[in-house]
Amino acid sequence: MRTIMLMNSKGGCGKTTLATNIATWFADEGHKVVLADFDPQGSTLDWLAARQDYEGIPEIGGIDAAKGPLNPPRGTDYLIMDAPAAIHGKALSTMLRRVQSMIIPVMPSPIDIRACSRFIEELLTSGHLSRHRTRIAVVANRVRENTIIYHKLEKYLDSLDIPFLTSLRESQNYIRAAERGLGIFEMAPSAVYDDLLQWDPILEWLSSKESLPTPLKKKTKKRA
Ligand SMILES: Nc1ncnc2c1ncn2[C@@H]1O[C@H](COP(=O)(O)OP(=O)(O)O)[C@@H](O)[C@H]1O
Ligand SMILES: [Mg+2]
User: Which ligand 1 atom is at minimum distance from the Cα of 11?
Assistant: First the structure.
């Protein structure tokens, strides 16, 4: 089972949006997908409830991980986890134990950039990542190109020692899709063409070995 988590210490940066869209991508590809919502606000579960109104779209399972245990059903191919906003220390480490790939969405705003840099600093220096071998990448979200703050964000994300996959533009398509419990991959392709192009690097990363935990090195016995 592949495990993917959307995480950031800041709310409103697009964790639920990315989690639900990634879920629909894999579900539309024919995989068995389960979304785990760790956020007590339950936005992902609301999205799943809206999805029930449609026929002919692939089913996605849901787990209320804010209230109960994280037990994905047998046969789950992809477990996509929508993390709560503020999580640090031991709780963060415990959560990372279950995560192969983590995507951190960041918005172009001074507060978000600062919060994100503190969060990434904590991740990189605490040893949580290396202990659990979780791979991480960042994505800029709700971007308006040609704004000073976007250039600042781009510069900051480029400077990090982790992959900066793509920038997703600010687009009503995400809001329209979310209202209906759909992903942008399930909308009329002509309406979402520009958005879909921006998703390619995310899907490529998630499908590549680069997003899988680094293999453990075998201990070599020293010859006498
Ligand atoms: N690229 C985007 N363009 C437009 N609206 C977006 C985009 N990404 C997220 N949103 C909207 O911003 C709000 C916060 O996003 P959300 O995914 O719920 O963040 P989080 O889960 O991190 O709190 C939601 O209303 C969502 O629909
Ligand atoms: Mg959310």
Answer: 23
Cα 10 to middle of ligand 1, angstroms: 12
Ligand 1 binding pocket (C-beta < 6 A) is: 11-17, 43, 141-142, 168, 170-171, 174-175, 178
Q: Which two tokens stand for residue 112?
A: 């978000």
Distance 96 CA to ligand 1 centre (A): 23
**DSSP string computed for 8-63:** -SSTTSSHHHHHHHHHHHHHHTT--EEEEE--TT-HHHHHHHHHTT-SSS---EEE
- The answer, as to whether pTM is greater than 0.90, is yes
| Domain boundaries defined on the chain | 2-210
Residue 67 Cα to chain centre, angstroms? 21
**Topology given in CATH for the domain delimited by 2-210:** Rossmann fold (3.40.50)
Q: Convert the pLDDT of each residue in 48-107 to its tens digit.
A: 999 998 889 999 999 999 998 899 999 999 999 999 877 888 888 888 888 999 999 999
